[in-house]
Amino acid sequence: MSFKAPRGTRDIFARDAQDFSILERAASEIFRNRAFIEVRTPIFEDAGLFLRSIGQETDIVSKEMYLFEDKKGRKLALRPEGTAGIVRAFIENRFDLSFPEGKFFYGGQMFRYERPQAGRYRQFNQIGAEYFGNASPAADAEMIITAFEILETAGIKDLKIHINSLGCQNCRPLFRSELIKYFSSKTDLCSDCVNRLEKNPLRLLDCKIDSSKFSGVPAMSAFWCPDCRENFETLKGLLSSCGLSFETDDKLVRGLDYYTKTVFEIRSGQDTLAGGGRYDNLVKELGGQNTAAVGFAFGTERVISAARNSGSLNSFAQKEKVFIAIADEELFKEAFAFSIKYSKTGGVCVSGPVNGKSLTSQLKFADKIAADKTVIFAKTEFEQGKIIIKDMKNKTQSEQQLQNII
Length: 406
Ligand code: HAM
Prior knowledge:
There is one protein chain. By secondary structure, this protein is α+β, with helices and mostly antiparallel strands. It has helices at about 15-35, 45-55, 60-65, 85-90, 95-100, 135-155, 170-185, 190-200, 225-240, 280-285, 300-310, 330-345, 360-370, 380-385, 400-405, and strands at about 35-40, 45, 65-70, 75-80, 105-110, 125-130, 160-165, 245-250, 260-270, 270-280, 295-300, 320-325, 350, 375, 385-390, 395-400. The strands form 3 sheets. Strands 1-5-6-11-10-9-7-8 form an 8-stranded mixed sheet. The chain has a 5-stranded mixed sheet with strand order 13-12-14-15-16, sandwiched between helices. Strands 2-4-3 form a 3-stranded antiparallel sheet. Helix 1 (about 15-35) runs antiparallel to helix 6 and helix 6 (about 135-155) runs parallel beside helix 9. Histidyl-adenosine monophosphate (HAM) binds near residues 81 and 273. Histidyl-adenosine monophosphate binds next to strand 6, strand 10, strand 11 and helix 11.
């Protein structure tokens, strides 16, 4: 019997795993510079939490959740995104009372039962942030700027910011009923859109199948109340004052129901790397105090892939790999101690020694693991305080004082 990683998941080794660490470290530094604090929440939560927050009619909840019951019959779900869990933690730990202006960042695995394709997995990683207690568009601007800075730091060159406002509970209902009127006259909608029309008409704007048929569709901007209009103008002004260019995008609605007012995405070519927006009602809806909030998340795999396409991340210098070999078995202990001490310098990547192998097979092994150099412990040289260094690329050899190496 042979086993394979489940469809939509993958094993991540070596350089690929290292890119995750590099990106996570760079992002957490940028977050900390802006006074965000780290939060880690469970990978599974009460399934009802996602239903209540992301929305029952969204694709994520209706089609893509990994649901299961535990031994006591509790209905649980692997988290499909981070925001709902952070809001649950924010309320449960009473931050809504003690620390309502909390700024949090997080990272980790998310799970969605989607059709796997390039940049779309069933288990994937996100890095994200949530900013509570600030209703000003300055908080929206700070989140967009922070997301952009992380993606820029990863070296991605062709970034485009798209922004829109979905309005608030005062103006969105008007837009919603205009949309229903507009779409009800269409007879050729796909089956998903027919369903959405009743339950979530805004989502029709996002339909990949029908979007070409929607010329003349009403624009949300025509329905904004004065407050939403002013917020959006302020946000644009703040982004411009920081030198960021952006596109306003009337059809940007996002795939989660909790958004109010500002929504945004950052794209590289056709790929959406990051998405987010304001969700001022969610903390209250989930049982907390009325608390404004705005956040974003990006897909770590997608960002790494875009960074590689831009030729960055690769540019992080690889450390020289050194293999420690022994020409005489009795020197194993000395070589082993040296190997540990040498690796602690952090300047090189050290492998070996291994015992019970001839020097020839140790050198073959060094070639196999693509060592740049092999340090050989041999009795005659060692007695003079020296080791042999073999350059594995051009096959030259030299001797050096052992004490000079570290
Ligand atoms: P989202 O747009 O659903 O938003 O996901 C954010 C990012 O996660 C996407 O832009 C994409 O890069 C990545 N992503 C999503 N699904 C997959 C997948 N199947 N495979 C690989 N990457 C994927 C959210 O999750 C919201 N929680 C963002 C947010 C935070 N809004 C407010 N606060």
